[in-house]
Amino acid sequence: MLIKHNIVALLAFSFMASATAAEFSIGAGAVYNESPYRGYNDNVHAVPLVSYESESFYFRQTTLGYILSKSESNEFSITASYMPLEFDPGDNDDHAMKALDKRDATAMAGAAWYHHERWGSVKVSAAADVLDNSNGWVGEVSLFRPMPMGKLTLTPSIGVLYYDEKFNEYYYGISGNESRSSGLSSYSPGDSWTPYVGLSAKYALTTNLTLLASANYSALPDDIKNSPMVDRDDSFTFMSGLTWRF
């Protein structure tokens, strides 16, 4: 199964938009994801939806944060997160892709900074692989703005994800041995920047029950889309689910 990193960012904005109304919420949803990898047809996955907020800690979907400093305008935290990006050749329908090595999901450690203004919020984050899978690191800069409309809140977002050369090499590169066994050309990507736009919505069905929906579109950079493992120029993600506030 493959779930791209922008889904994590997508869900995080949904929970950020609802965190001011609840300390703890839990639920379930479904994600439709257009995988960039060739040979994947299973595009729908069930996902848990979990959010927890306190003065010192937060859990936002796949990221655990310890808040070092917080004010009305700024929040700085150190983070530990799960990077769900993976490639399993056993789940792939393409004969050549089945001959490639597995790419595992991993754990990341890093830091995040949020800055809030009337016109919106800015997020800047960076995290490095701590399980020695890719030995790479990723970064994100994004702008989002919650817009309350009664029971409905819309949150448009725009941002860019940075992946360093080691990260891209692990998830999108093809070694000489893999090339010989699969027939695909060997490939060594560089680092890359992936821009995206998104829109999330939450609707309060009751005091405790909330309906969530999010959509995200990203344009794949050359260093990713030129990989023989990839057969797309862009990617679209849609998520919907229900959460219960405690």
Please sum up the structure shown:
With 246 residues, the protein is mainly beta. The protein has helices at 5-19, 165-172, 176-182, 222-225; strands spanning 24-33, 44-53, 57-60, 63-70, 74-83, 106-117, 120-129, 137-144, 147-149, 152-163, 192-204, 209-219, 234-245.
Keywords:
twelve-stranded antiparallel barrel; 4 helices; mainly beta; Porin; 246 residues
Overview of this protein structure:
This protein is mainly beta. It has one domain (5-245): monomeric porin ompg (Porin). The chain is built from four helices and 13 strands. The chain has helices at 5-19, 165-172, 176-182, 222-225, and strands at 24-33, 44-53, 57-60, 63-70, 74-83, 106-117, 120-129, 137-144, 147-149, 152-163, 192-204, 209-219, 234-245. The protein has a twelve-stranded antiparallel barrel. A hairpin with a 3-residue loop joins strand 2 (44-53) and strand 3. The two termini are 31 Å apart. Mean pLDDT is 91; it is low at 17-22.
What order do the helices and strands come in, and which of them pair?
Elements: H1 5-19, E1 24-33, E2 44-53, E3 57-60, E4 63-70, E5 74-83, E6 106-117, E7 120-129, E8 137-144, E9 147-149, E10 152-163, H2 165-172, H3 176-182, E11 192-204, E12 209-219, H4 222-225, E13 234-245
End-to-end distance: 31 Å
Q: Using only CA atoms, what is the Rg?
A: 18 Å
Structural class: mainly beta
Q: How much β-strand is present in the residues?
A: over 45%
Mean pLDDT: 91
Main sheet: strand order:
1-2-3-4-5-6-7-8-10-11-12-13
Percent helix: 10-25%
